[in-house]
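Subject: sequence -> structure tokens, single chain

Hey, anyone have a minute? Need the predicted structure for the following. Not urgent.
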Amino acid sequence: MKTNSVTAASSERVAGAMNGWLMLLINLAALFGSIYWFISTAGESAKTNHPNTAALIAAPLLLLAAIVSLFGYFTLQPNEGRVLILFGDYQGTVRQSGFWWANPLYTRSRGKISLRARNFNSERLKVNDKRGNPIEIAAVVVWHVEDTARARFDVDNFESYVHIQSEAAIRHIASLYAYDRGDEHEHTLRESADEVAGAMKKELLERLDKAGVLVDEARLTHLAYSPEIAQAMLRRQQAEAVIAARQKIVHGAVSMVDMALRDLAEKQVVKLDDERKAAMVSNLLVVLCGETEAAPVINTGTLYS
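Reply:
Had a minute. Here:
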């Protein structure tokens, strides 16, 4: 029986609640009606010297019930829920917005639970990526309470639980991916934002399911190397950029030299032997690949002088 009770408390169910305005009319009628009933009965008993004991007892009891019923009213805004407990037993959750009345003996479990979407923006965490490089990482998690019973009964404080588990998931995901420069077809933190976000959301869903929390979105908001290696990594990136630029420049220069030699040969502008072709190729590559502008030199002699 104890196990079944715990299982029931960990699964949300809808609780019954009556329209507050209708109950307010009934409550006020019972309140003033009981007072009038008691006064009129007492006066009539005094005149006849035959007290109506049943009425004199029932009227105060009705008044007491009306007063106790005044504590059963509550309001809910859109996307709010209230968990109701009767003597430690979970009775259900009211989710519909409006003015409601429920059994005043219900314990309303520390007030309302917001069902709205919330943001958790983590602090910058220092972790090691897949290759052991220290990095700084932060993420934003959009979440909302899906099951109010789990959020209230299965964890001590569901908001704190979300924060701690989110940071743990971010650290774990960061250790599964390299910052950049992955192997062929390997996802990295810097270049595969969608894949990393999907993996993070999946892990958060598994971790936060116990608290009845549903993750709507998870995205990285900060990603950088740690300060102690940031300068070295920046120099490496700069070197890689220079090498890539040089490769493109050399490839373009060779294509231009080849086009120039072919055009000269096809149009028979000048005939060059292999030695002169090599000299021309060398000069063109120096001009095209040099970082500074080349200074032209005019040859006033013959081609072979």
